[in-house]
Fold these 2 entries.
Entry 1:
Amino acid sequence: MTRVAGCELCALAAASPSPAVFENDRFAVILVDDAGYPGFARVIWKDHVRETSDLPDADRLLLNDAVWKLELAVREVMAPLKVNVASLGNVVPHLHWHVIPRYADDAHFPAPVWAQAVRETPAAVLARRKALLPQLADAITRRFASG
Amino acid sequence: MTRVAGCELCALAAASPSPAVFENDRFAVILVDDAGYPGFARVIWKDHVRETSDLPDADRLLLNDAVWKLELAVREVMAPLKVNVASLGNVVPHLHWHVIPRYADDAHFPAPVWAQAVRETPAAVLARRKALLPQLADAITRRFASG
């Protein structure tokens, strides 16, 4: 396992106790603490790899599968209007995938969450979505534990 | 094959002659005409499906494989500093994946391309990258034709 000093995702992958909702020896699934986007989740590859296409085939398929399972869990619990899925890593070039539930009333819709915000989501709506997070954690655990 | 009237990606998938660099009965690969991002490419699923997780398993694996092959072709020819890969579709909810070569001198780096631009890439640099597009088209054709 390659670890790079100063890489925040290497640090997260090695953190004890782990902040992950689910993890195995290859990847960790975390819920992102983003006030405007409850249900925002990530799959973080543990090894310090730059691109999905740097992975050997078996690992790449495992990562694709993890992102797909996470998308299913987010859809099941958060019931978004749309799911956004992305691997960017320009700031932290350590392989990770974002899975983001999107709603017509979120701060950026229909633009990507990285664009300029165009509105504030009502606090009550965000609170209602945030209250679903324990259920989302359960759904992730269930979907990943079943292999 | 579901076609939705007014969906621009349904129209693109059905266009004759096809603008695709490569296509089969399931998906099309196109080069995006974005002046600031030569080498920006997309995999467009032909059927009008909303999310990757709406696909049956065999199709999902085929799409994952297509995005991976496209990432490899873009890396091979465009030699980016980083690749960005994303499925958003908030504006056009017809399944498609972006593969975007990123460089330290591009208009948004290190932010995602959907953020506020922070610089202008020198015209000569963009021209040099644009000149690689025939080679990128060849690399895509080669990688997809080989199955």
Note: The longest strand of chain B covers residues 96-102.
Entry 2:
Amino acid sequence: MNRALSIRSNRNRSGSQNKRASGGGGSAFSFSSLRGNIQPELSRKLYRLIKAENNLISAHEAAGRERISIATQLSEWGEHTGDDAISDISDKVGVVLSEMGELEDGYAHDLDDSRAMLKAIRNTERSVQPSRDNKNKIADEIQRLKVKEPQSTKIVVLEQELVRAEAENLVAEAQLTNITRQKLRDAYEAEFTATIERAEKQILLAKHGRRLLQLLDDNPVVPGDLRAEYPHAQQARQILNDAEDDLRDWQPQHDEFGFAAPQEQQPVSRVSTGEQPTKDVKGKGKMVDNDENMSMARTDSRTEGGSPLRGDDRTVEGSVGQGETTL
Amino acid sequence: MNRALSIRSNRNRSGSQNKRASGGGGSAFSFSSLRGNIQPELSRKLYRLIKAENNLISAHEAAGRERISIATQLSEWGEHTGDDAISDISDKVGVVLSEMGELEDGYAHDLDDSRAMLKAIRNTERSVQPSRDNKNKIADEIQRLKVKEPQSTKIVVLEQELVRAEAENLVAEAQLTNITRQKLRDAYEAEFTATIERAEKQILLAKHGRRLLQLLDDNPVVPGDLRAEYPHAQQARQILNDAEDDLRDWQPQHDEFGFAAPQEQQPVSRVSTGEQPTKDVKGKGKMVDNDENMSMARTDSRTEGGSPLRGDDRTVEGSVGQGETTL
């Protein structure tokens, strides 16, 4: 991170009056800024942030969609080359890419859930604004009367009103701080959790994708020589099975950065045990000689535990995934 | 993966004549389809795929850009709340999000590199097409003459030409298969490697992000109560330092799915040792009591090895990162 440790620092240098100007809507007149302005002052910044979140979500959705489209195109291109090896590998790499695209799309949906939590803050901000305004308006009115008509009986009535308004506002402000802190934590906890899930699953897929690429013999041929027959169809299919198993068995890791009531010193000092961010890729030592096993493993819709390979997997994983929390 | 093990299967069911029609540009007339059609038949599919890759890259660029914008907005919103805890945490979560956005942008660039490799295949396809066409044209012409003017002396000349054209095409086809296999592997190897890098780094960031959120006390207050003073500024800063260290120390893992000359059976059976996909997040057992150390660690532009914490890190990591390959 080649930046300062605050993202705000650049703006701070230009002075606070500058900031206040832009916060008050100092930008040029436009329809979009008009629409922003109908938000009460208090919720305006978050209103815009939530709109920007929408763009972020759309971008990830688009990335997922394009990835899936490319996956299909890659497979069809490969078939079209008339080269068995390229045809098979491109098709199976296509399956992996397509699954990566689905994960990207799922990520977009998770971001949308996080966005909904920020909306709860914005809605509270919006509802607290009239309470603040009312309190201030009464205080101003009292001030005005004290100067203009110091003997007015309205002052006493207004002072009673002010006490009530202050009490009401006290509740509103407590609601605001409670909702803001809780939902801010929830929203970004959800976002970081979704980021980790997408990342861990995409790592699994990418590693199996690399295994597939290894099956493509790219030794150059001289003109007139024929390529040797493609011998890896079975292995390629097994790799997809492994990938499928890995994705199905994936579990969120209960790391120690997860939620707990924060206590002084503890959050940093307690993260002292080793845990593994992502699970290991399966398929290690998994190539079995037994043809019977292989053909069982290859059936596309085999049932949970139906393959003799599965028990084997768990053993491999159990010894490697040292930090995995059992649920 | 709740799909068939081929991404092609759906289309195959609809029959091959269907496929041929769409492959031949059966879509409605439009400028974009016209432009696609000026590509020779051989390179048309890849030409379209490469265009789709462009959309994918743009989507990831947009995601990165929006993420960085949101990060700044989050920080500014937090400052605006007037709540010290929210202000500090939102600013530092903003730094983490912003770095995630930078990674997304870097990923887009890596995808662009991968796309350039696919272009090398497309260019070869494009240049091989005339060679195929020429060979076929001469063969057709010989066939036509043999029927119409079987005594023509042109036939002998054309047959010599055909032998030359076939030799030329033999070279072209060898070039095509060599380039196609090599660049296909390279392109997707690069893409999967980039996917893993983005994922591993984003996992590091997300985990530190979750540590930051833990510092935000979200216990509800009752109306009129004041929030306790925010005590975690130093810890929050340390978390950013940890994140920065982790990103700087990140190395690609030389896993065994990486490139090696593929040999029968080996690619699957040799992946039998345990390695860790991602490194562990730092900052474990790292909270030191020594204030001197802390303040050194907090200087933004400290030099490599300048902080006493760094040696400590390496020890922690050395014992945890069991699968890390030393370079």
Note: The two ends of chain B are 35 Å apart (CA to CA).
